Structures are given as structure tokens and as C-alpha cells.
Amino acid sequence: xxxxxxxxxxxxxxxxxxxxxxxxxxxxxxxxxxxxxxxxxxxxxxxxxxxxxxxxxxxxxxxxxxxxxxxxxxxxxxxxxxxxxxxxxxxxxxxxxxxxxxxxxxxxxxxxxxxxxxxxxxxxxxxxxxxxxxxxxxxxx
Length: 141
Fold this sequence. Notes:
Layout: E1 5-8, H1 25-41, H2 49-52, E2 64-72, H3 79-94, H4 107-123, E3 131-140
Antiparallel strand pairs: 1-2, 2-3
């Protein structure tokens, strides 16, 4: 879903709820235009919920829509913060005896820890299923 393109009723739509995602901006625009063409020809029997997340109760003609790109929240791991937190816990519990604990963690070991944590998110499917919309443009028909 990250960096995929999708459509919405307008550029000021707060929640983009279309069910279809596209690899390119042009694919999204073409799909929305085709769906809107069908809808405008027969608004009582067609809907645009999947294509642009739009449901018109008054069957009004659609003359424009928005296209934008999904920017999925990416999990980042601050390994230094994790190590600092563990050092503080050790210091709180053991004071001077914890002096120097984890001061010599290498860059390679920090990278390994980061990979381990990110792999855990993937393994247990704790991936973000939400996103912000970037690169928004209005398409007027």
C-alpha cells in the first residue's frame, strides 16, 4: 500500500476510503474517470465507493475528484534510546556497579538489534494499516 495511488471525492477529503490502490498516478486517474463515466451515465445503479470512496445520495453528477499517494507510517527504531533506557534502569537498580554497562555496544550490534526488532514487527504482522496522503491533485472532468 505504501506509495500507491488512490482517489477521493475532493482534495479536502479528510478520510480517503477508496478500496482500490494503483501503482501509478495515471492508472488511478484512468480507473476513476472510467468509474465516474459509468456512474454519471446511470447514477441510480452505479456507485463510486470502491474507486473514490464516494457515495452520492442525491445522484448528482461527478465533475471532479482528487488523486493522491498513500504514505504509510514507517516504524523506526532508535536503538540508542533503547540502550540508554536499559542503562538508566541498570543505574537506578545498581548505581555505580552499572557504570559502563552497554557503553561498548558496536555499530554492527546496534544494527543487528534494529533488524531484530523490525523483523519482529513483520513476523507478527504489526504493520501500520494507515497512512497520510501526499502529492494530492484535483482532476477536473
